[in-house]
Amino acid sequence: MNTPRLLFVINDAAYFLSHRLAIALAAQEAGFEIHVATPDSMETANVRAHGFSYHPLPLTRSSANPFSEISTICTLIRLFRYIKPDLLHLVTIKPVIYGGIAARLSGGAAIVAAVPGLGFVFSQRGFKANVIRFLVGRLYRIALGGNRLRAIFQNPDDAGRIARLAALSAEQICLIRGAGVDLTTYAASPLPEEIPLVVLAARMLKDKGVVEFVEAARLLRQSGCNARFALVGEPDPGNPASLMKADIAQWLAEGTVEYFGYRSDIPEILKASSLVVLPSYHEGMPKVLLEAQACGRAVITTDVPGCRDAITPGVTGLLVPPRDAPALAGAINTLLDDRDRLQTMGKAGRALAEKAFDVRYVVAQHMEIYRSLTSKDSVI
Which CATH superfamily is domain 5-180+359-374 in? Predict the structure, then answer.
């Protein structure tokens, strides 16, 4: 009996390791031969270290050069014909679209298309954004037009929008709430006794609500709020919404916020915090909110798809309107003034994480999808 081959196509090796590694390891244990295609980076050695076959992929997230994009699709066609995967797991917008088109042209493989969020393209406004969305919608319809396909979404709003664009059937749509959390690594801990630390941990993008967080911190400091405010993460030059290092330097010079930069010890950062904030404009299912709740921390996020689906509003955290720094400041102040409520929300967040976000449950859902697509009786 031939060993089934599973190929992950993803736009960043670090993202694969942080969001899909547990799934790949479970598939490997179940007997799949695992291949991973990402742009080459410092993290690709870690991909190989797990016993996976690695394939460099010339994919640039920010490129809009049509010749470069067509070249990427051609590379994927050659790669698919070389590996002959039984199953493709495509993750994020470009891998889903380009990988889906390449799979239809090369034939043979079943497809799992994971759309963690609709991304920058769907959050912008204006004529140019509308044209790009129209084109992306047509590409989704082509890429997801095969029969042996499951499309995974992290919230129902994104599922409905892409399902309409790509004409997906109900049987092809799967809802899985995020990438899951290791509940042992992200263990519950008591609230710190020192001056409250309010944390925003994310890529330093405007779309993550970083500017609103800084403005909220400024308003709270002006009102005499005794708390620390920290940004955790780095700018992302490959994203059009990325902030510049000069922006962060200015905030530091003002003394408005602290900047921790990139950190590999996120569980410790969350446990040192009293409150975790993510005022994002759009998300699929933000992992940091799941992790914060697993650590027993109350959260504040925006009332937008993905963010509101990650919490139980009023129970594990609060929702505020997007792009509204005064409302965010008010919500932060409300919770910092009520330590008992912070603790109650934190306990409820941990209970929610145990019920819905355990990575073992997420892995099991993926393995069931894999089995359904690779079984001899699979017809969809």
Answer: Glycogen Phosphorylase B; (3.40.50.2000)
